[in-house]
Structure formats: structure tokens, C-alpha cells
Design goal:
About 0% of the residues lie in helices and about 55% in strands. The chain is mostly beta strands. The strands form two sheets. Strands 2, 4, 5, 6, 9, 10 and 11 form a seven-stranded mixed β-sheet that branches. Strands 1-3-8-7 form a four-stranded antiparallel β-sheet, with no helix packed on it.
Length: about 110
């Protein structure tokens, strides 16, 4: 079973940048789409960004223009470059792989201080 493993979270000041990585334990070609959700305390999980196997990207409205999702097929890894971070970006970020079913990672904490 191919599972996502996130890394790259941490504490950053507002205006700063972080890059999250999501490594698959096997090939990502079996999945139709991959991406990131986030969940802040007391809030519902929301879509941050997704990328299809063909490279089509979608972003949540709150991160458009600041975050960029990408993938490296050779490394079976999905990335999330986060720039101009705001305190409201603070959340646990979860990576997922989708192919009619979802595979979820355990999440990585991102904290943005003001």
C-alpha cells in the first residue's frame, strides 16, 4: 500500500516561506491526483492545492498567488512551496493521493507567527 509521508513543516514568521514535501512509498503513477489539505484548530479541513497526474493544478482561494504545488515523478514526491505566509495559514497540512480511494499522510504542523 503506497502511503504519503509529509515533511518540511515548522515555525516561520509572517511573510516567510516554507516548502513541504510529500514522499510516496511507491510509484505515484497509480494515482489520478495528489495534493494538500489543511486543518486549523476548530475549523474544517480545507483544500490547499491539488495536482493531477497530467499536471493540472488547482488551489484554494485563500492561497492562490502565494502557494505552488509541483511534483517530481522520478522521486515520487509532491511539493508545496508556500510563500508570503500569514498567521491564518497555521494548520496541520495533510498530503493525499487519490485514485477512486484516498491515501492520507499523518500531517505536518505549520505555524506562522505574527
Amino acid at each position: 500500500q503506497v502511503l504519503p509521508v509529509e515533511s518540511g513543516g515548522g515555525l516561520v514568521q509572517a511573510g516567510g516561506s516554507l516548502k513541504l514535501s510529500c514522499a510516496a512509498s511507491g510509484s505515484i503513477f497509480q494515482f489520478n491526483a495528489m495534493g494538500w489539505y489543511r486543518q486549523a484548530p476548530g475549523k474544517q479541513r480545507e483544500l490547499v492545492a491539488s495536482i493531477s497526474i497530467s499536471g493540472t493544478r488547482n488551489y484554494g482561494n485563500s492561497v492562490k498567488g502565494r502557494f505552488t504545488i509541483s511534483k517530481d515523478n522520478a522521486k515520487n514526491t509532491v511539493y508545496l512551496q508556500m510563500n508570503s505566509l500569514k498567521p491564518e495559514d497555521t494548520a496541520v497540512y495533510y498530503c493525499y493521493f487519490r485514485a477512486g480511494y484516498d491515501r492520507w499522510g499523518r500531517g505536518t504542523q505549520v505555524t506562522v507567527s505574527s
